[in-house]
Amino acid sequence: MAGLQEKVSKRRTFAIISHPDAGKTTITEQLLLFSGAIRSAGTVKAKGKGKDFATSDWMEIEKQRGISITSSVMQVDYDGLQINILDTPGHEDFSEDTYRTLMAVDAAVMVVGTGKGIEPQTKKLFEVVSRRGIPIFTFMNKLDRDGRSPLELVDELEEVLGIDAYPMNWPLGMGSGLLGLYDLYNKRLELRGADREHDEFIPLDEEGEAVGDYEFKSSSLYQQGIEDAMLLHEAGNEFDLDKIKKGRLTPVFFGSALTGFGVKTFLDAFVDLASAPDSHELMNGEILEPTDERFSGFVFKIQANMNPKHRDRIAFVRICSGQFDKGMEVTLDRTGKTMRLAHTTQFMADSREEVQSAVAGDIIGLFDTGNFQIGDSIYTGNREIEFKPLPQFTPELFMKVSPKNVMKQKSFHKGMEQLVQEGAIQLYKTYHSQEYILGAVGQLQFEIFQHRLLNEYNAEVEMTPMGHRIARWIDEEDLDTSMSSSRNLLATDRYGQPVILFENTFAENWFKDKYPDVTLHQLM
Ligand code: GDP
Fold first, then answer.
1. Domain 281-379, second-level architecture
2. How many whole angstroms from 39 Cα to the centroid of ligand 1?
């Protein structure tokens, strides 16, 4: 199928990861701008601390621009390519979904603020992406402000994240003194123009000097910048596309998302170097090519109440092979049942449209009435296609939970069971008293859980925060019930595996000293 191959090769499916406020929303907006999906740039205002749980960073853009981005996936055309950007919510809506979304992308863009450098959430998200061995591109943002020195930033990146870095361009100055970008990759100097359309490009000669007579060439900013860049070029890492594709070398770009400076240079290199959809290894060891004619995909996220008025639920499917056509019949791997995919949605920047067709690399949304669970595979053809299970992530926040009304025990249990199965939250029981504990990676998961139990199951719950805990699994044969105390609470997960919830690292270390032979395991 030549047509399929060509379509697949044009897909770039990625997520932007960052610590809140590094500039993820702003750079997403720039991408929309460059792709022509929106027409004018405006600053996306600082996000409100609203309690509306359905908010995502994109909804801010949506509100400001009056366009419908509606949640988690956006598809735009850029430079003849079809780009799928998946949102990884930060802030108060940070959750396991954020991590799982990273299982559905082929590359990641990591936005780092030059003022703050690598921050905790950047590191967490980086680690999840890094384990997948997919390309990671770094954008050092906010160059229009005075920040830390570029050398220091690149050093920190390598040190803290443990990845090699390759500066693709190098800033000459910063803040109000920013002259431009010394662009080693494109062999040109990018000068700041009056606006993003008018950046000026000056080619570099053999020696790496800007061609032509310019006043700035005698400035120390220019000379020092070139010296640093050259030094890095000689002493630093080599450009190695293979290492980039495996996520072992991150190309680093400098720029300013707010003013648009360096953004197009970054995007162009990104779409050029980032991989098109790749093959997947299945449970049976088979390698499934994206151009395989059999359609297949997996559910990585289920979002309920996208529109509170309709109470709809959408299962997000990453297509891994073949082509999706509206109305096609697929098999759901978990149950072996077939179903027709009639009600689907695709996510364009300017509208939420019914999908007619989509190919490997794309994300489709299936309207769901409770058929799907996170991690489900769907496929066409007679041969089963079973993807490797999605990893589970170690929760960090915990809550004790109980039904408010004892008469409603039944709906409480039903709701709990279904929501846990859906992957919305993790459930534990204290070993001794069999009390329910919920675990999550983000606070918002609790709020959604509470809200949904009430609205969908009519069960009101009492929640008692336990705060942060360090969850570590132990082997069953190591289990000793006297291990449990308030500082290291013994519990079981929903599969009955023993897990200890440590109050803090101190408690964990104390435990390790006391039980040196017990191995502590963690999820991802
Ligand atoms: P997010 O939380 O990562 O999505 O960050 P935002 O894109 O919302 O940006 C956070 C704040 O930083 C906003 O006030 C932006 O206007 C600002 N910001 C983003 N990019 C830049 C930049 O390149 N320069 C400057 N000076 N501010 C920026």
1. 3-Layer(aba) Sandwich (3.40)
2. 19
